[in-house]
Amino acid sequence: MSKFGNYIKNSYKELAEKVTWPTWAQLQQSTMIVLVATIIITLIVWVMDFIAGGGLNLLYKILYS
């Protein structure tokens, strides 16, 4: 049980003293970067899907009409 207790103490010490936590401004900036990147990637995938769907519809019309 002493190994487990040491593990908990060392883990707490590392989280409290050794980890550098971001400031509120850094956290907001990182969140905005992730949000903007997500929106851009979503738009790229949507455009690719729209183009592929239109191309397939055109191909089906040519083949089956």
UniProtKB/TrEMBL annotation:
Q: Pfam families under this entry?
A: SecE (PF00584)
User: In the UniProt record, does the keyword Lyase occur?
Assistant: no
- List the InterPro entries: SecE_bac, SecE_sf, Translocase_SecE/Sec61-g
Keyword vocabulary terms for this entry: Cell membrane, Membrane, Protein transport, Translocation, Transmembrane, Transmembrane helix, Transport
Q: Where in the cell is it found?
A: Cell membrane; Membrane
Where does it primarily localize?
Answer: membrane
Specify the domain of life of the species encoding this protein: Bacteria
Q: What membrane topology term does the record carry? A: Single-pass membrane protein
Transmembrane spans: 32-60
Task: Fill in the subunit field for this protein.
Answer: Component of the Sec protein translocase complex. Heterotrimer consisting of SecY, SecE and SecG subunits. The heterotrimers can form oligomers, although 1 heterotrimer is thought to be able to translocate proteins. Interacts with the ribosome. Interacts with SecDF, and other proteins may be involved. Interacts with SecA.
Q: What is the role of the protein in this entry?
A: Essential subunit of the Sec protein translocation channel SecYEG. Clamps together the 2 halves of SecY. May contact the channel plug during translocation.
Q: Which family does it belong to?
A: Belongs to the SecE/SEC61-gamma family.
Please report the name of this protein according to its UniProt entry.
Protein translocase subunit SecE
Protein encoded by which gene: secE
